Hints:
- It is a single chain.
- This protein is an alpha/beta fold.
- The protein has one domain (3-304): UDP-N-acetylmuramoyl-L-alanine:D-glutamate ligase, CATH 3.40.1190.
- 37% of the residues lie in helices and 23% in strands.
- It contains 12 helices and 14 strands.
- It has helices spanning 40-50, 65-76, 119-123, 126-131, 143-156, 172-175, 185-192, 196-199, 201-210, 249-262, 267-281, 294-303; strands at residues 3-7, 11-17, 32-38, 54-58, 60-62, 85-87, 93-99, 105-110, 134-137, 160-163, 178-184, 215-219, 225-228, 233-236.
- It binds alpha-D-ribofuranose.
- The site of alpha-D-ribofuranose has 16 residues, from strand 2, helix 1, strand 8 and helix 10.
Amino acid sequence: MGKILVIGSSNLDLIAKMERFPKDGETIKGQTFLQAMGGKGANQAVAANKTGSNVKFVTSLGNDIYGKSILKTFNDQGINMSSSLLVDNVPTGTAMIWVDSKGENSIVIIPGANDMLTSDYIVALEDEIEKSDLIMLQMEIPYNTVQTICKIAHKKGSKVMLNVAPATKLDKSVLEAVHVLVVNETEAEVVASAKIADIGEEAVAEKLNSLGVKNVVLTMGVKGCLFKNEEKYFHIPAFEVESVDTTAAGDTFCGALAAGISNNKSWEDALRFATAAAALCVTKMGAQPAIPSEKEITEFIKENISV
Length: 307
Ligand code: RIB
């Protein structure tokens, strides 16, 4: 079983489902409210754990009821939390999530304790970084922490999978350390400084390769995803499902992809597995409550084998 080290954010998600988003200055009635565990790092850790890998998660939580509850829930799921932090006098990160009738979302994050995951703390984890099959990162912790992890991983020869969400410009020290870059269309354009509408998906992915990233995965929602490295360029179509809430679809994709890579699946198989995981995720409300297991994904692929 592959050993994955996820270093990233944890949030308490406050999710409101509504017919449509309110306009400026408008008050509307929503339909349902859900409070659930989220955060891109945490969601990816849960997804990798549920899809067949051995996960250690390093995160920073407030020493409050939410932080303590997240810590317990993750420990109970078998995720190693021994290097995570419970920080006094800072609240656990929070995300306000609006979901409309098409399942599209709008998210505001209050980082709280996530900002306490500093470079100084990471330096003590050098051995962990060296020992892992794959280090999985996102952009909801301080940028210089991501830089420090990438520099250590590069020096030690460890593989990094970086999901550039939320979209952020990256410098050379990060790009040259990345084994797999997972980006949606907006994120790809920000990192590549190029527009898909001007030069096309393949040229944008090629630009990312030329910046130092070995393997590029471009996720495109209902259009599926593209893969590009020096040897291959191919497309995996999306599965057709009824979308209830797209929250954490990208995180589920990343976690399942990481599990596939660390368990030595081919790029094609790992990406098909990740695409199926994301499809199942959008059929349910919430982030972590919607993440499917390895068994559910495998059965779903068998049932939809003609896709
Ligand atoms: O990607 C979805 C996640 O983004 C939510 O769980 C929310 O916490 C924000 O981090």
